[in-house]
């Protein structure tokens, strides 16, 4: 194990420098919110979708867009509304009378990073349109199945369910997300810095510093990190404690 750790150390340091560049670009726009930014990058490396919850005005959408700007990848934003249709998300078949056949018009889901903005303002049938894409990295349109690009990540934002005009996400879809983040208010110093930046008409330019190939390399390095069986046992115990709390003497 120590040999593997020594072999990986230089690669991990190199990837850490790359992530530091990404954080530097993000900090040009986002003040504070280190917890959210770190977990957005964590989801990127772990190849897991992420759900961000918070009241309007906490820079959820801005944070995702800024991360996308710092990555040299495809990006699409979908504003979820009550009148959104599944075809608006994944695409549909269009009849071509001149050729007497159908052609597939792909939707915004065919991108590396997909921002599902205010995902819980659309009805369940639209939210469910993401299930196949998030789990299997593919979309079925008509009778054809289309692979999604690699990397593929859904970064969704939602307002608290208590707010008017929101719908609860189906449990099957919540299960597709690796992490759910709850975003809170900034502190006073961060609020003052936000005030100064918003008062300026100057908008910082974000440079893309991470390409898809580098993201894939980061994931390969993460896959080679050693995980001790004791840590595996602890993770499984935590999971089972949530299912059978009485066995673990929990309330």
Briefly summarize what is shown.
The protein has 251 residues and is of the alpha/beta class. The protein contains ten helices and nine strands. The strands form three sheets. A five-stranded parallel β-sheet has the order 2-5-8-1-9, covered by helices on one side.
Mind explaining what this structure looks like?
- The chain is an alpha/beta fold and 251 residues long.
- It is built from ten helices and nine strands.
- Strands 2-5-8-1-9 form a five-stranded parallel sheet, with helices on one face. A two-stranded antiparallel sheet has the order 3-4.
- Strand 3 (91-96) and strand 4 form a beta hairpin.
- The mean pLDDT is 85.
Strand order of the largest sheet: 2-5-8-1-9
Count of DSSP helices? Answer: 10
N- to C-terminal separation?
38 Å
Silhouette: globular
For the residues shown, what is the average pLDDT? 85
> What is the N-to-C order of secondary-structure elements (H for helix, E for strand)?
HHEHEHEEEHHEEEHEHHH
Tell me the helix content: 40-55%
Please identify the structural class as seen in this structure: alpha/beta
Total beta strands: 9
Can you tag this structure with a few keywords?
alpha/beta, two-stranded antiparallel ribbon, 10 helices, globular
